[in-house]
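Supplementary Note 3. Input sequence used for the single-chain structure prediction.
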Amino acid sequence: MYKLLLLEDDISLIDGLQYALKKNGFQLDVVRTIREAKVLLSVPNDYDLLLLDVTLPDGTGFEICEQVRRKGNPIPIIYLTAADEETSVIRGLDIGGDDYITKPFRLGELCSRIRALLRRSGRKKEIGDSLLVSGKVSVDLLQSKVFLSGSPLELTSAEYRLLCLLVRNSGRILTRSSILDLLWDGNGSFVDDNTLSVYVRRLREKLENDPSHPEHLLTVRGFGYQWKE
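The predicted structure, written as discrete structure tokens, is reproduced below.
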């Protein structure tokens, strides 16, 4: 599991981030002042990414970025900025920050940016080693269990394999023939096209708010299916 450090003094935002990041498979530590962050980061730690508010009561998140970069630590850093701080954040990027997101932001967008930055940084502690997470859906690969908004979801073995395949390839269009080949380790002769349609329909009924108008398990006409986070 990726371990993140959040430097933020807004209690309401902290609460929202703790809930959203935990739900998306991240472990989160929180500090509320520059002093606390400096003390915590002055000793060896195993953080994979830093989320730094720019303006705090005792300084700016830029100070923490400078401290980390002086030590040669390449850890990914995302700034959390107010709208009127977007110009000053250029300085933050120049001193070694990797990305920034402007408040108020959607928690889903932040999680997507975190995952993208972790991939680009080459960090190999993949969440997918034991946990697949996409929005409200999480898959415990060790126990072969699926959760929707934290509640267990009952799936058949075929539905489970199909969901894992789709989530692992989130954003990619998978043809029907490739799905059959990948799921059943052959040429798909054990399961016909109509059966795959049944599995897709059942998954939508269990995962989508409105199965008739899916938001996540999409049909791409003439090609196949796509999972959209």
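The domain at 2-121 is CATH 3.40.50.2300 (Rossmann fold). The chain has eight helices and 14 strands.
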